[in-house]
Amino acid sequence: MAEHPDPKNQVDDSEFMDIAKDPAQARLLRKALERLAEGGAGDTLKEMAQEVLSGRVGLREAATISAYSEAIVAGMQPFKEKWDELSDTERQALAADGERRLEEERQEIAKERRETRQQGQGSGNGAKHAGNGWSL
Questions:
Q1: pTM to 2 decimal places
Q2: Which residues contact 68 (CB under 8 A, 6 or more apart)?
Q3: 78-116: per-residue pLDDT in tens?
Q4: Does pLDDT of 2 surpass 50?
Q5: Which of 91, 51, 85, 86 is nearest to 71 (CA)?
């Protein structure tokens, strides 16, 4: 069985953009896979998540592997049953919670991008060879 992938050797959020179509959804998908890779949903899904996060198997390919797809279906059954028991109001509340979570993730991504741009512009020290502070 695969070992837990080293975070620096993991795929990044861009690996999931063809599925998610949105950076926030891609990040949340990666985070969900990280939780699965911790093993809380069983050994089969742990292995699948580790394989996907390491880049050895793509998520679409993993879904076509019968052992993984069967584990996904079996793991989703309790959620489906719970969903079926919910009222429309409860479903709408959960959908609103999901939208809020996506918006929080979008804001976090925007903040990270701003910080990255600011770091790229220097932290007030200026460029190493900017020529500031000396003359001939």
A1: 0.76
A2: 44, 45, 47, 48, 62
A3: 999 999 999 999 999 999 999 999 999 999 999 999 998
A4: no
A5: 51
In the block, tokens 């790229």 appear at 120
Annotate 93-108 with b (16+ C-beta within 10 A) or e (fewer).
Answer: eeeeeeeeeeeebeee
The pair of structure tokens assigned to 78 is 């309790």
| Distance of alpha carbon 54 from the chain centroid | 13
DSSP classification of residue 10: S
pLDDT at 45: 96
With residues binned 3-state (H G I as helix, E B as strand, rest as coil), the percentages for the chain, rounded to 5, are 70, 0, 30
Q: Do 16 and 29 touch, CB atoms closer than 8 A?
A: yes
Largest CA distance in the chain: 79
| Burial class of 39 by CB neighbour count within 10 A (0 to 12, 13 to 18, 19+) | middle
Q: Are 23 and 13 in contact (CB under 8 A)?
A: yes
Q: CA-CA distance, 64 to 18, in Å (whole number)?
A: 16
Q: Residues for the chain: how many in total?
A: 136
